Amino acid sequence: MGFLKRLFGGKKEEARPASKRVGTPTPRPAPQPRPEATEAPDADVAPSSAKQLARDLGSGNPERREEVARLMVASGSRTSLRPLMNCYLNYGDPGVLEALRVFGKDLAAPASREAFDLSVMGARRARLMDILGISGDESVLTTVRPNMDDVDPDIHIRSCVAVARLGDMFGIDRLEDNIRMTDPELRSLALAALMELKMERSDRVLGDHVKRFMAEAGAVPENIVVKAPLLGSSETSLSAAVIAEVIASPHNLIMVIGSGGIQMAAQRRDAMAQALAGHGKVSFGLPLMSPEEQIASLQEAHAAATASPGARAIFIGRLPAPHDNPPLPHFITRVEGVTYSVKILVVDLHEYSLLQDWLHYVQDKAEAPTDIEVILSVSLESQSGLTAEERVIYAMCSAEDKARFPRAFMARS
């Protein structure tokens, strides 16, 4: 047909437009998710600044985290609740918890939801109790109370504190039970928690505990003076305190014994001799000496102290105990025509039995006036002889109790 049309001059067929190619349509850009609606930040905090602050909550510097928490709260934005809460759960900074207080009851719902997750344990759950405790919402008591029976000491203690803050004094009763337990860690945690609460009832419990501690001071005989000079001043050294005590003593013969006296003789011999120059003859009982040599050094000091009226001598270092073998010879005797007195300084006492041995010796044999004094090396620094519980108790003591504290401490040692 097409051939005849061309031969006889038929109508010329117009070119048809090319059909569109069938294929994969060009993809449209995926719709972008709409940003979640948030409250507008405070006018003084630009969005970029608010984001930077949120990032800084993950800083490795706790001071920076606490500073950021204060800034975020000052901005007035309620959207900072969750970032601040997560920060406290992760790090436990006290300043961040304090910043969270401004949210009050708004803390109850998010903290309760996380508390219902039983996989949240350890420090994170203990910190959840802190957040619930400052919420001021009594309805969360049903969430907090079961945690008081947790075997983890931190969770148990923090839930007791939270219950007390929410108005249920049973939390304080449980803490009082803890300070009567034999576990020293639990007792110290409970004491610190009671101090933190600063409530009338918690203060009464603390006062009763201090009284019980101080009552033990009665186990030390009244005629024995007990001092702990390092408790009162962090600038004082034990050797300086002993030197001052020796110089101020009116006695003719002063003996510095005990583990502290041995250490001074072994490690600070020249310094002690120089510091005490002009205050009497100084003799030493060195650890490397035989017991007979140590006794001979004491007899040398005794002879110098009784040589004339007003003479003085000082013995520092190791001596056999009065009932050791060989036995310590009787040396606290009357001296005709000479007023003679003795002071025994037991330094850094570790064994109460040693003190009792010297006390019995003085009671049975001393013919001249003899005083016994104990100088303890304990201080408020960690690893200094005081337990965490005892440091807390000392911090609670009145001035009068602080003076009696060394006696109670020694009685418990």
Give your account of this protein's structure.
- The chain has helices at 2-7, 47-56, 62-74, 81-91, 94-100, 108-115, 122-134, 141-144, 153-165, 170-178, 184-197, 200-215, 229-232, 238-248, 258-267, 269-275, 291-305, 352-365, 388-396, 399-412, and strands spanning 224-227, 253-257, 281-285, 313-317, 342-347, 370-375.
- The chain has 413 residues and is α/β, with parallel strands linked by helices.
- Among the domains are: 47-168, Leucine-rich Repeat Variant (Alpha Horseshoe); 229-377.
- The protein has a six-stranded parallel beta sheet with strand order 1-6-5-2-4-3.
- The N and C termini lie far apart (125 Å).
Compute the gyration radius: what is it?
39 Å
Helix content: 40-55%
The shape is: elongated
Most strands sheet: 6 strands, parallel
The arrangement of helices and strands along the chain is HHHHHHHHHHHHEHHEHHEHEEHEHH
Give the tally of β-strands.
Answer: 6
Query: What gap, in angstroms, lies between the N and C termini?
Result: 125 Å
Percent of residues in beta strands: 5-15%
How much is the average pLDDT? 86
Structural class, judged by helices and strands? alpha/beta
Low-confidence stretches: 1-47
**H/I helix tally:** 20
Order the strands across the largest sheet as they lie in space.
1-6-5-2-4-3
